[in-house]
Write a structure and sequence with these properties.
By secondary structure, the chain is an alpha/beta fold. It has eleven helices and 14 strands. The protein folds into two domains: about 1-215, P-loop containing nucleotide triphosphate hydrolases (Rossmann fold, 3-Layer(aba) Sandwich); about 225-285.
């Protein structure tokens, strides 16, 4: 069953097209990733899907409701985890959940039944009466996620949910998101962490300049666009080695800063070659989603 469908959506600001005819369809129970560099159009796309920004063209169906015409009706069954924590510092953990539940018209009896389960989901049972200032970054993000579940949503929008978290907190957040998927929830995820997208997403789309560059499962996209093996080489003299050996031995190769990236199908000849250059260091690994992302969007810094 389709939970969210967008066809040919477009948006321009000041004569510049920010979203240029995107199509996406989310099926119930899947995690769908929307990836792209800064300025690619991700935030504008999310705002259009939620009915917060009106598209210049295209159609959007959110849980059976046309957007933006009936966006409010659709959003009643949606949870949103924003990129920046917007918890109310004047309230306790519990009070933040209660107040948010009132926005959805939930009665006190309903909230009393739901709050213990939400606190347990966020592992914040012992923090119910704590002020927001007393929470760690990981606790705040788990609370924001729990708050997004107050209305028992069918679809959850997650905008970079683990930004700023340490590795332990990120893994804990991933566990919570997998639990939601096992419960049949549908997730639309934006993230700058390629390992996060590769771990969580059933399908994803990479966009840049408001256009889709590729869509599919992480494994299929990597197989279709990237050589299976990567050797990263760095150290003094890497430029000379790259010109004489790295590029000729690679199917595709590039050098950025002090690191050479060599993409191959058979890494054995290159690994053997590098043994003759003890002053160089290298890492041999399988190709991943970050390699695909950088190939399609480039390595230049975005502001």
């Amino acid at each position: 069953m389709t939970v969210l469908a967008a066809r040919g959506i477009r948006k321009s600001y000041g004569g510049r097209e920010v979203v240029a005819g995107l199509d996406l369809v989310l099926a119930r129970g899947e995690c769908y990733g929307l990836l792209g560099p800064n300025g690619a159009g991700k935030t504008t796309t999310l705002r259009m899907l939620l009915g917060l920004t009106h598209p210049d063209a295209g159609t959007i169906d959110l849980l059976g409701h046309p957007v933006p015409q009936a966006a409010r009706e659709g959003r009643i069954r949606v949870g949103v985890v924003p990129q920046v924590d917007n918890l109310d510092p004047d309230f306790t953990v519990r009070e933040n959940l209660v107040v948010y539940g009132r926005y959805f018209g939930l009665r006190e009896r309903e909230m009393e039944a739901r709050i213990p389960k939400l606190l347990e989901f966020a592992t914040l049972e012992s923090r119910a009466t704590s002020r927001i200032q007393e929470l760690s970054g990981g606790m705040k993000r788990r609370l924001v996620l729990a708050r997004a579940l107050v209305n028992d949503p069918e679809l959850i929008f997650l905008d970079e949910p683990t930004t700023g978290l340490d590795p332990q907190a990120r893994h804990q957040m991933w566990e919570r998101l997998r639990l939601l998927l096992r419960q049949g929830k549908t997730i639309l995820l934006t993230t700058h962490f390629m390992d996060e997208a590769e771990r969580l997403c059933d399908r994803l789309m990479i966009i840049d300049h408001g256009r889709s560059l590729a869509e599919g499962t992480p494994a299929a996209l990597i197989a279709a666009h990237i050589e299976p093996e990567v050797v990263e080489v760095y150290g003094e003299g890497v430029e000379a080695w790259f010109a004489a050996h790295g590029r000729p031995l690679s199917e595709r190769a590039e050098i950025h800063g002090e690191t050479a990236f060599c993409y191959l199908r058979d890494p054995a000849p290159m690994v053997e070659n590098l043994r003759g250059f003890p002053h160089l260091r290298f890492l041999h690994r399988r190709a991943n989603l970050e390699d695909l992302f950088l190939k399609l969007t480039g390595r230049e810094m975005r502001e």
